[in-house]
Amino acid sequence: MDTEPLLLTPGPLTTSERVRRAMMRDWGSRDADFIRLNAEVCARLLSISGGVERRVCVPWRGSGTFAVEAMIATLVPPEGRLLVLRNGAYGARMVEIARRYGRDVVVQEDPEDRAHSPERLDHRLAEDPAITHVAVVHCETTTGLLHPLAELAAVVARRGRHLLVDAMSSFGALPLDVGRLPALAVAASANKCLEGVPGLAFVIVEREALMAAQGVCPSLALDLAAQYRAMAETGQYRFTPPTHVLAALREALLIHEEEGGVEGRGRRYRENLRVLVAGMRELGFRTLLSDELQAPIIVTFLEPASPSWCFDRFYDGLKRRGFAIYPGKLARRPSFRIGCIGRVFPDDLRRAVAAVAEVLGEMGVDDPKPDLELTME
Ligand SMILES: *Cc1c(COP(=O)(O)O)cnc(C)c1O
Questions:
Q1: Ligand 1 in reach of 105 Cβ (< 6 A)
Q2: 3-state SS string for the chain
Q3: Regions of the chain where pLDDT drops below 50
């Protein structure tokens, strides 16, 4: 019997036994078998993105942030100006990356519980012709909010600018279709909706732009263009690749395909979300976001106002019952998060809600209603 808790978090996530078993072999990184394995993984990632001919997949050792940093540092040139749409921690991270590389960066800020508006973006781009690139987070994992990516991308394209997308927490579960989406680059990682293990990220990027960006990135290890060129020439990574992680990701991609690809995975996550939110609302919890803004990835619940509430006790009670959840990350309101991605199914979420009810009883919280006087502004 599996005694480890299910990870109801934004990643790393619960993976399948097949994925974990795929790591039981050592691979030589210069060996033809591994080079083939890597090429297969890249081809599958490219195909999931819906991007084909003009794009390439550049895999990256490290967590998701490494790929986002490589994308910004390589594709935004010193003479460019980057506009970051920010309404959470991951937008803020892109701003910090650009600043650290000395790039000219400006920000369009929105409240944490509101989606970026394509109209506002349009005005901003009209007002500031110096903006060359726009960066946006697809699903802002800080809250679980899904931004209207296709509409935002259309505005960026109409204004003749380049779009960079952080699709970390949506890739593989929500349709992206970079074939039609006018995005210069999309960054994501192995250990979220693809249900692989942590240690590999990747950027899907227009090949021509990447070739033109040789020598732009000031960092040696995070130079996306150099990595691509080396891989195109030799099939190899410039530096030690995470061989076991790649083997696990290939298995995870086979499972993804068996589940029906993006559509099948998205369907399971949407059902997980439905069960979770309905169950928690029935207990009296409130979600931060209205349903139309909520991605089927992770849900932010407002903390109960009851004086008997204590997050640490809540966390421990759930963990003893086999579920690991996540603390909140809101700037202004106490909250916690429960994820619905990973190798978890609607019945797991039903059991999780039942466990929440038990822990509330144990803590003596009769009504988990939050303090609605607190606002986001
Ligand atoms: C997980 C995540 C990242 C990357 O975080 P790491 O901790 O570096 O893996 C970036 N952006 C978003 C939206 C994410 O959800």
A1: no
A2: CCCCCEECCCCCCCCCHHHHHCCCCCCCCCCHHHHHHHHHHHHHHHHHHCCCCCEEEEEEECCHHHHHHHHHHHHCCCCCEEEEEECCHHHHHHHHHHHHCCCEEEEEECCCCCCCCHHHHHHHHHHCCCCCEEEEECEECCCCEECCHHHHHHHHHHCCCEEEEECCCCECCECCCCCCCCCCEEEEECCCCCCCCCCEEEEEEEHHHHHHCCCCCCCCCCCHHHHHHHHHHHCCCCCCCCHHHHHHHHHHHHHHHHCCHHHHHHHHHHHHHHHHHHHHHHHCCCECCCHHHECCCEEEEECCCCCCCCHHHHHHHHHHCCEECEECCCCCCCEEEEECCCCCCHHHHHHHHHHHHHHHHHHCCCCCCCCCCCCCC
A3: 1
pLDDT on residue 375: 59
64 lines ligand 1 (CB under 6 A): yes
Q: What is the pLDDT of residue 330?
A: 83
Is residue 47 in contact with ligand 1, taking CB distance under 6 Å? no
CB distance 199 to ligand 1 below 6 Å: no
Mutate to test the pocket of ligand 1, among 65, 85, 87, 142 (most ligand atoms within 8 A of CB): 65
Placement of tokens 């003479």 in the chain? 79
Task: Count CB neighbours of 107 within 10 A.
Answer: 15
Report the pLDDT value the prediction gives residue 263, as an integer from 0 to 100. 97
CA-CA distance, 77 to 67, in Å (whole number)?
A: 17
pLDDT at 1: 39
With beta carbons less than 8 A apart as the criterion, state whether 115 and 146 touch: yes
Q: CA torsion angle for 253, 147, 87, 327 (degrees, to 10)? A: -50
46: number of CA atoms within 13 Å, CB side? 18
Alpha carbons within 13 A on the beta-carbon side of 210: 26
- Rounded to the nearest angstrom, the distance between the alpha carbon of 363 and the centre of ligand 1 is 33
**Cis geometry, peptide bond prior to residue 12 (ω within 30 degrees of 0):** yes
Contact 174, 295 (CB under 8 A): yes
